[in-house]
Amino acid sequence: MEGTPVTVESVREVGPGTVALELETPEAFDAVPGQFVLLRAVPWDVDDEENVDEDDVVMRHYTLSSASVEETFEITVGIDPEGDLSPWLANLEGGETVHVEGPFGTITYERDDHIVAVAGGPGVGPAVAIAEAAHDSGHDAVVVYQDDEPAHTERLEALEDDGADVVILDEDDRDGLAEAVEGHLEDGQIYAFGFEDFVTFVAETIDDAGGDSDEALIENFG
């Protein structure tokens, strides 16, 4: 199997239908918040894992949800009950091996500025990682998060306790999302993570409010 084998250190529930996997950091893995990896696994029994048929391998991209990658790093996985990979990942107990490639991506946070992280659904992983990295570096952080079933609420509450401005909105609250983005337009480098409809709305809101969406760092999950 291609990629670097890494150990799954732990799996924990971080929200409804959502888990976080803590993975062993490979050698020379120099990733920063905002980047993503390609995870490869064989989510069923095979006779010889050393010579597995590539047709048996399932691959998915996951954005880092940890602020650092020193010894381990984290990815956040939304569980699709009908999916080929996420239910298997959610049922791991630690000690198993998966393969990763990367890091990939040019949407990065270098701990050099105040930030406004706008997240829709699964975008909360990179958003909370960037916000934590900003606070760790002495910068201000804003998180605007839209989801009917929020994940990583403990980390978001900890950020709020540390002085971050955290706004959590219902999934259909477009007016609230527009108001939150407009209200924090000048508060730092804007990041946006989510599916196409979400990030398109965020970009249009930035432009309508007099900002420049081309200056925002936007990751479209498709």
TrEMBL record:
**Cited InterPro entries:** Cbr1-like_FAD-bd_dom, FAD-bd_FR_type, FNR_nucleotide-bd, MRET, Riboflavin_synthase-like_b-brl
What Gene Ontology terms describe what this protein does at the molecular function level?
Answer: oxidoreductase activity
Q: Which Gene3D superfamilies match?
A: NAD(P)-binding Rossmann-like Domain, Translation factors
Report what the protein is called: Oxidoreductase
**Do you know which PROSITE patterns this protein is assigned to?**
FAD_FR
Q: Which residues belong to any copy of the FAD-binding FR-type domain?
A: 1-110
Pfam families from the UniProt entry: FAD_binding_6
